[in-house]
């Protein structure tokens, strides 16, 4: 019964989310995205995607031919465990606003995957929400600085563990 209800909710969303206008084009529901008003898990959704792309692009400076190596390292770097490690080493550098975004995302109700502890998962959600907020507000200088610091911290941690 629950799967049927979920599927019917999905069908409803699909019908209403992508409505067309009189010309047949898909009609947007909003004229802009106000990052301050978005739920923290939506910010984390955007931050997760951004950090994945940042890491994949950054890894090209180390390897350009072996996709499996790029994929393995990329997946490790963006894992909840390593993102939580980066946060623990970055938290003193965060602004008050970033700390508030982190707190709201950390405390948001979500389900942790089996690959990480609940604390690491919530911590990675918090850092992803900060990244999402910075990306959506076009704060590219701060965004790049934060992502680069996290990347460097994680790479050094991986080196310590595997070399």
UniProtKB/TrEMBL annotation:
InterPro entries: Mini3_fam (IPR008226), RNase_III_dom (IPR000999), RNase_III_sf (IPR036389). Residues 42-138 form the RNase III domain. SUPFAM superfamilies: RNase III domain-like. It comes from the Bacteria. Pfam families: Ribonuclease_3. Gene3D superfamilies: Ribonuclease III domain. The keyword RNA-binding applies. The active site is at residue 48. Its main location: cytoplasm. Keywords: Cytoplasm, Endonuclease, Hydrolase, Magnesium, Nuclease, Ribosome biogenesis, RNA-binding, rRNA processing, rRNA-binding. The keyword Metal-binding does not apply. Its cofactor is Mg(2+). Its EC number is 3.1.26.-. Homodimer. Involved in correct processing of both the 5' and 3' ends of 23S rRNA precursor. Processes 30S rRNA precursor transcript even in absence of ribonuclease 3 (Rnc); Rnc processes 30S rRNA into smaller rRNA precursors. Belongs to the MrnC RNase family. This is Mini-ribonuclease 3. It comes from Pectinatus haikarae.
């Amino acid at each position: 019964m629950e799967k049927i209800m979920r599927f019917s909710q999905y069908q409803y969303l699909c019908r209403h989310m992508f409505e067309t206008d009189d010309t047949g084009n898909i009609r947007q529901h909003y004229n802009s995205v106000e990052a301050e008003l978005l739920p923290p898990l939506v910010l984390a959704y955007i931050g997760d995607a951004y950090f994945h792309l940042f890491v994949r692009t950054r890894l090209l400076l180390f390897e350009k031919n072996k996709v499996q190596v790029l994929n393995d390292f990329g997946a490790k770097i963006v894992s909840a465990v390593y993102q939580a490690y980066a946060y623990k080493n970055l938290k003193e550098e965060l602004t008050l606003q970033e700390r508030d975004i982190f707190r709201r995302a950390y405390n948001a109700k979500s389900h942790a995957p089996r690959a990480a502890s609940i604390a690491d998962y919530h911590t990675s959600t918090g850092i992803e929400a900060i990244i999402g907020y910075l990306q959506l507000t076009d704060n590219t200088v701060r965004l790049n600085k934060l992502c680069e610091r996290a990347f460097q911290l994680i790479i050094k941690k991986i080196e310590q563990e595997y070399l």
